Amino acid sequence: MEYRRLAEFYSALEATTSRNRMIQLLTDLFRETPRTLLGPVVYLSAGRIAPEFTGLEYNFGEKLAIRSLARVLGVEEHEVEEKVIELGDIGDAGYALFTEKGYGRGGGLTVEEVFRRLVEIAKTSGAGAIGKKLELFSDLISRATPLEVKYLLRTVTEKLRLGIGDNTILEALSLAFTGSRRNRPDIERAYNLTSDLGYVAQILAEKGIEGVRAVRIEVGRPIRPMLAERMSVPALILKKLGGR
Fold first, then answer.
1. Which keywords belong to this entry (predicted)?
2. pTM score, two decimals?
3. How many C-beta neighbours within 10 Å does residue 143 have?
4. All domains of the chain, ordered by start, with CATH?
């Protein structure tokens, strides 16, 4: 699957404020995604590289993104900084600069390659990590189209800004693989037991809703915490506690 296609879906998601439209777009995306790539696509669409409990993060700030853009385009960093200030977004700035400079006409990046490279960036640490991250990301965007650059920059700086959350993704998964929203509670239950939306999506794609219903608590996968329901009066609190 080409990353260009994923970027096109992101652009359409960003352009709408209708939740129903967002769900439909995500449903179409998940149906179009090869089953072996569904987990990575879900992580990326949620603005993550892995489940939150793993602690894996890009640690790639906007300043490093600016350095990367300047390096690839052969311009001074202050020129990139000025464009970011003008447009108010690192992704929009990257898109504008790549377009203005006539850069990034090649494309050809795949979702698999992008995800693998982003994982490598996130896992890079220790002495010389900043330079290595810069090198890895610069190589990636040097082979990207302007639209791909826009969302790669937003992804790696953790500012994807698509307006979608876990609940929207859960509904889209239910529609994409079961044809109905009625199975969403089963998918959400599996997510609550594993805290890993990509893992649950992969099971749904490969084993169907019965595979999702078979998900159980596993060692090493924390259960999602549930917010407590606030009671307005003492009588309700006592009732919840069995009168004691």
1. ATP-binding, Cell cycle, Cell division, DNA damage, DNA recombination, DNA repair, DNA replication, Ligase, Magnesium, Metal-binding, Nucleotide-binding
2. 0.89
3. 16
4. 3-55+163-213 (1.10.3260.10), 62-156 (1.10.3260.10)
